[in-house]
Amino acid sequence: MKTTRAGTARVPRVLIAADKFKGSLTAVQVAERVMAGLRRVVPDVEVEALPVADGGDGTVDAAVAAGFERREVRVAGPLGDELTAAFALRGDTAVVEMAEASGLQRLPAGVFAPLTSSTYGSGELLRAALDAGARTIVFGVGGSATTDGGAGMLSALGARFVDAEGEPVAPGGAALSDVATADLSGLDPRLSSVDFVLASDVDNPLTGPKGAPAVYGPQKGASPDDVEILDAALGHFAAVLEKSIGSRATEYAAAPGAGAAGGIGYGALVLGARFRPGIEVMLDVLGFAPALERATLVITGEGSLDEQTLHGKAPAGVAAAARAAGKEVVAVCGRLALRPEALGRAGIRRAYPLTEVEPDIARCISDAGPILETVAQNIARDFLT
């Protein structure tokens, strides 16, 4: 136990600000397991849990854990089937997670629909947030099943996209090649009076080699031919929108974040959203700064600490903020693929992967909770005693 100059014990205060271990533990469960492990070694340790997310799946859960109210609503899933999705509300601030309505986890097991899945339900979630009185909407995007440029979302909010015969185009990204006219005059007027924040951990443009179809389409089951179809369709969609809203449509397509979550970022920009890195937004919304001020040690983490972590993922954002405040940071993870010097540059003193305790990766996934508790005991011994 660390002591003051007078020799009296000073109880350490730990802030656990970790993301989920995807496929194993939610961010809330990660915090619970780390807390349990720390207290086995230092029973009187003061622990504050602030589960975090970077805008992708788990964002609503993180907001609820921070004191937001969970609101449920029936919306269309990515294939059009009705499902129950949630957003989070505190006062007049709403946190809306597109993956709740349009995420990969909303598809049946083993099913992908890269050409036909729609973001219509995400638009319904945004409308529900407006109905609940939201004046600020944080729109977390990631983990999508869709590549429709946000066309479904825009339709749910009052836009109309019709073909050369004047008929509504079918759902999904591929059908955007049939759009002849885009009419945005019917968009929900409340959108113009809210602070609409697009929160994403990626800054890709809509189309091209670094665009949504090329980079993320394969993760959603898109073949090389599908990627070509989707890229062309999204490019056509932006060109048609240019006839409706002018050069902004083309500017938005090239803007950072336009390609997020299958291009729903583009649709959000069309609606007037401002893009911010997801973890920065969520740390503000969750009240990270005052929690950080109270801490003597910060524990962050996610399922895999790798090169992607360094580019806008939650642990990197937490570590950067903690380093700026002069606080020491360690990380927990299932798998570690970063060298110590890379961790150091990110502001992470040391990383503790589950594989150090259990080399069998399958067991690390299936028994992540107990193994993480053991890892947390090691952190306590190294940093709290």
Automatic annotation (TrEMBL):
Gene3D superfamilies: Glycerate kinase, domain 1 (3.40.50.10350), Glycerate kinase, domain 2 (3.90.1510.10). Keywords: Kinase, Transferase. It holds the Pfam family Gly_kinase. GO terms for biological process: organic acid phosphorylation. It comes from the Bacteria. GO terms for molecular function: glycerate kinase activity. Belongs to the glycerate kinase type-1 family. This is Glycerate kinase. It comes from Streptomyces olivochromogenes.
